[in-house]
Amino acid sequence: MKRDIIAGNWKMNNTQAGTKALIKDLAPLVADATCEVVICVPFTDIEVARKAIRGTNIKLGAQNVHWAPKGAFTGEISAEMLKELKVEYVIIGHSERRQYFGETDASVNARTKAALLGGLKVILCVGETLEERESGKTAEVVIRQINGGLEGIEKADLKKIVVAYEPVWAIGTGKTATAQEANDTIAIIRKAVRKLYGKTAANALRIQYGGSMNAKNASELMAMPEIDGGLIGGASLKAPDFAAVVHYNK
Ligand code: 13P
After folding, report:
1. 31, 62 in Cβ contact below 8 A?
2. Is the distance from the beta carbon of residue 172 to the nearest atom of ligand 1 less than 6 Å?
3. What are the sequence ranges of the domains in the chain?
4. For residue 55, how many other CB atoms are within 10 A of its CB?
């Protein structure tokens, strides 16, 4: 059985003090969660977060990882470094990375391979821009991102991957894809995965929706058959808001 996964992407928010306080507030609120609960924090908050989540059901994630095991890559962080800090998940290929930091399907693929090799689980992000959606290219874009991102990755490793479908136009804008739109595109993504790995593996893959997901719309989105979780930005920064999303089924 697949278990739904709700992950918070804190992006570039919270210093160490804020991290401690937020986790302290959040932990009791999500202790009864039936889904998997993850927070993906800035690198500088990882150590503090690791200590703060001890004894809770909250799992730890990071927001990026480099493709090389080590070397002259100023400003980057390796899988081994994250693993040492007990990081379990890492977000790769977020649209903000693609948009502002030149991330490509090839670099996303290289980072994904490095993460898997280093023993991390991956939240692999895909999603179309507004322009791509309006010109009818949504399917083409997400299929390309899936094929590129997963290129050369073994079927056995697919179990360690979660895909996040985040339409770029819905991120931080307050505009959510309708539950039906999200479900339809996720079905397209799953079909692309099925072509690569077969039906059983594709059905077992967890695919999240992300983009202005919050307490109000989480239940409707999560009720859709193709949606197995959420990747939450803004609403993950306040404990009651994130807890409400985690309790989408209550
Ligand atoms: P918002 O929930 O703030 O729209 O962000 C979504 C997102 O980008 C999560 O990775």
Report:
1. no
2. yes
3. 5-246
4. 7
Closest Cα to atom 7 of ligand 1: 233
pTM of the model: 0.98
CATH classification of 5-246, choosing from 3.30.70.270, 2.30.110.10, 3.20.20.70, 3.40.30.10? 3.20.20.70
Cα 96 to ligand 1 centroid, rounded to whole Å? 10
Residue 246 Cα to ligand 1 midpoint, Å, equals 15
CB 155 within 8 A of CB 192: no
94 among known catalytic residues: yes
What 3-state DSSP class applies to 208? strand
Ligand 1 geometric centre to CA of 229 (Å) = 13
User: Is 212 a pocket residue for ligand 1 (Cβ < 6 Å)?
Assistant: yes
Answer yes or no: is the C-beta of 92 below 6 A from any ligand 1 atom.
no
Nearest-atom index, ligand 1, CA of 171 = 4
Q: What is the pLDDT along the chain (250 residues), one digit of tens a residue?
A: 799 999 999 999 999 999 999 999 999 999 999 999 999 999 999 999 999 999 999 999 999 999 999 999 999 999 999 999 999 999 999 999 999 999 999 999 999 999 999 999 999 999 999 999 999 999 999 999 999 999 999 999 999 999 999 999 999 888 888 999 999 999 999 999 999 999 999 999 999 999 999 999 999 999 999 999 999 999 999 999 999 999 998 8
